Amino acid sequence: MTENPKQTEAALIDGKAIAQQVLDEVTQEVCQLTAAGQAQPCLAVVLVGEDPASQVYVRNKLLKCQQAGIQSREHRLAVQSTESDLLGLLETLNRDPQVHGILVQLPLPKHIDEQKVIQAIAPEKDVDGFHPVNMGRLMAGAPDRLVPCTPLGCLIMLRHTLGERLSGKHVVVVGRSNIVGKPAALLALEQHCTVSVVHSRTENIEALCRQADILIVAVGRPELVRADWVKPGAVVLDVGINRVERDGKPRLVGDVAFDEVAAVASAITPVPGGVGPMTIACLLRNTLQAYRQQQG
């Protein structure tokens, strides 16, 4: 009896390269708009407090805006700022016709209600796609919705990897957050996939994950998904970014045990360098979309 051939290691899905393609498209269109005498698209970014990770994220977003020709405005509020202070700023930005997109960097200090803040952003300027109106438009399949950036990035990566072969695939989404899990499931349904969503209360979660042609993992638990959770040949998108200590040194790892799963999957995103760059690229894509819709 002949032995089964060894599964070759998964192809890396290069998030940096795909994100650059998205950014190049945005940059080209912004250049065409400004060359035609149109105003620059403008993104307002609001940061409350001095969380180090949030400051890095905001700095990276502002840098990408500059590179793409999108005007950016940074608004910093002290950590002791009240909820009313933040809501007042958002009201001003909502009314400003020169601001086309508004992003409030999360998480917020504990004394501020995140949901109240998200709902205070005008839906047409909600480039994070978290407002209930945009979530409802996503559910309804409306063309004028703004889609959460990370799930949108996942979809673009899947299209890049699978093309027309995406239709009909069984997608299993691990995690049911409003930021990633739920919108990722809705986007996969729009692509004519069969979709399952599993979470912390799911029974036989490993067996359900093993049925997936495409596995999208977004739970914030370091290396939760092991090789025996994954069907040979599956495509795996790892949304998690977790800081852990290995051999006395800090490391970034995903929600997937990369080395194990790469030996089983056909394609996989690395951490870092996978889904992360796509999130910022899709933020700029959403800002351009919001600008176009507001300009009519």
Outline the structure in words.
It is a single chain. The chain is an alpha/beta fold and 296 residues long. The chain has two domains: 39-122, Rossmann fold; 148-277, Rossmann fold (3-Layer(aba) Sandwich). Helices cover 41% and strands 17% of the residues. The protein has helices at 15-35, 52-68, 83-95, 114-120, 132-140, 149-162, 181-190, 205-209, 258-262, 275-295; strands at residues 11-12, 42-48, 71-77, 101-104, 170-174, 194-198, 214-217, 235-238, 242-246, 249-253, 267-268. The strands form three sheets. A six-stranded parallel beta sheet has the order 1-11-8-7-5-6. Strands 3-2-4 form a three-stranded parallel beta sheet, sandwiched between helices. β2, α2 and β3 form a beta-alpha-beta unit. α1 runs parallel beside α10. The N and C termini lie far apart (67 Å).
